[in-house]
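#struct-pred
JK: can someone run the complex with EPU? inputs below
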Amino acid sequence: MRILDPNIVAKLAELHVELKHGAALAELTSLGIGGTTDLLRIKRHETLPDLLNLLDANHVPHKFLGGGSNLLVGDGELPWVVLQLVRPEPDVMLDGNLAHVDTAADLGRMITFCAKNDLGGMEGLIGVPGTVGGALRMNAGAYGMQIGSYVREVKLYRAASRKIEVLRDHQISFEYRHTSFAPDDMMLAVILELPSKPYKEILKGIRICNEKRRSSQPLGQKSAGCIFKNPPGVSAGRMIDELGLKGLSVGDARVSDRHANFFVNAGHASAKDMLTLIADVRERVQKSFGVSLENEVVVWNA
Ligand code: EPU
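RT: done, structure tokens with the ligand placed:
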């Protein structure tokens, strides 16, 4: 979708929003899949209510993009624009055990920065690509931990009130890869309370998690992490593996040889290829195990 109306373009500039015409979403997602649309880069959080009023008044649909690492975007010219926060400098500020983090911060860099300041707890998420905002929205987790456990406060744009609000931890529910935030809320900043730990000890944990991830996941390939959520008590990856589906392909969309719940873009896969592969695998698992797999990856398809 293109924003060509000069009145809207001028108002965007007034709101300090950078407009990039025809951005390729394939270049902004870890899967390397996705069509084109206009990208609106937001430099100031406080302009969000006015920006969204402007878009709504002009019937411009939008979606919020974080780091694009858990996302499958449709092909071709997309029927909505994409909003993305510009990362401020600095993006993490420490105050005792509290880390004040802008959601545009890179998750891995934030974990490393906190570790160097003797704040731990997040070791399990090292190696998970994406922004802090994306991790927060999905309640990202690995190796027995989840980001939600450390959240004390979240600043967000709430679609329901059309305002920027601050929520305390008890006002948010964090479940397995799910939070109580609405799909069109936009995470802006978070305060994490992290346990004190010597850097050397945190580093040991980080090395162990890095090693486990390297040995079991296709890190060098284009993917969106796990495609399906694990149903209670079972592993989606193990079921897909047991059906012998590693290597199954539709075009360049392929079930990873290393971890069966990672589907990789082995070349120039389209969203259509990937969605067909997902549907095929889901159907086979349903048939053989009677289990209905739910997407873990977020799909923006028209
Ligand atoms: N397994 C297989 N074959 C495979 C993959 C896994 O037999 O191809 C077996 C493993 O041997 C193991 C079991 O299945 O016994 C579980 O596998 P793994 O430890 O790799 O964990 P997972 O349940 O597949 C979850 C998260 C990952 C996270 C890891 C580590 C989900 C959907 N996945 O994977 O998160 O990194 O645990 O904690 O919850 C993600 O969210 O994108 C993601 C990759």
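RT: quick notes.
The pocket of EPU is lined by residues 142-143, 216, 225-226, 229-230, 235, 237-238, 241, 259-261, 296 (CB under 6 Å).
The helical segments are 6-14, 48-57, 107-116, 132-138, 199-216, 236-242, 271-289.
JK: thanks, will look after standup
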